[in-house]
Amino acid sequence: QQQVKQSPQSLIVQKGGISIINCAYENTAFDYFPWYQQFPGKGPALLIAIRPDVSEKKEGRFTISFNKSAKQFSLHIMDSQPGDSATYFCAASHFGNEKLTFGTGTRLTIIP
Amino acid sequence: GAVVSQHPSWVICKSGTSVKIECRSLDFQATTMFWYRQFPKQSLMLMATSNEGSKATYEQGVEKDKFLINHASLTLSTLTVTSAHPEDSSFYICSARAGYDGELFFGEGSRLTVL
Do A42 and B109 touch (CB under 8 A)? Predict the structure, then answer.
C-alpha cells in the first residue's frame, strides 16, 4: 500500500520538446505529491508539489497533473532544455506523517 | 531558502571502523529529520526518522544498532554507521522540514565507501 510506481525508467527528449513522467500510487491516504530533481552526486531538490484538492499546478515550465480517481499524477516539462537533464523522482506522503515514499526515478536526458 | 548541510560529503573508511555523518539545518529549527540511503541508480529508501530529544524511529529491516541516530538539538542530527562493511557503501541523504507544514529540504548527501 506504500508503493509509488514511476515510469518511464529513462527518457530522451529533444531540446524544446515536452518531457512527461508518470506516477501511480496505491495508498488513498496520501495527500501530498511532490516531484524532486536530482543531479549526480547531489541531494534531491523540490521542483513542484501538489495536494489533491486541485487537478493541476503550474510553475514556470513545470506542470503537475493530478487524477485522484485514477490515483495517478504526472510531471510535464515544457520547452525541455539540456539543463533539465537529471533524475526525477515523484513521491507521496500523508500530511502529518511526513515520511515520503519515493518512486523509482526517471533519468531524463535532453538532447540538442 | 532553507538549507540543510551534510558533512562529510564523502568518506572512505576501512571495514570494521565507524563513520559519523552530520546533518544540520542552517537557518531553521527542525524537530524531525529523516535519513535516507540511496544505492547507485536507485531510489531513496527511508532508513529512519530522527526526533529531537527522543529515540529515532527505524524503518523495517534497518538495524538500529548498526545505524545509530542522535538528534541532540533542533539543528543537528547525526548518523553513525558502526562497524562498517563494504555492503554499507552508499549515498546517505538527510532531510529536514522547515516548520509544521513547510517544505522538506534535503542535504547534499554523503557518499560512504567502505574498503
Answer: yes
pLDDT, residue A94, reads 86
Q: A56-83 pLDDT, tens per residue? A: 999 999 999 999 999 999 999 999 999 9
Residue B34 has pLDDT above 70, yes or no: yes
Q: Does A100 touch chain B (CB under 8 A)?
A: yes
Beta strands in A1-85 (DSSP E): 4-7, 10-14, 19-25, 33-38, 45-50, 56-59, 62-67, 72-77
Q: What CA–CA distance (Å, rounded) separates A15 from B71?
A: 45
Q: How many structural domains compose chain A?
A: 1
**Closest Cβ–Cβ partner in A36, A43, A99 for B108:** A43
**Using 50, 70 and 90 to split pLDDT, how confident is the model at B101?**
low
Q: What is the CATH number of the domain that holds A84?
A: 2.60.40.10
Instruction: Give the structural domain span for A25.
Output: 4-111
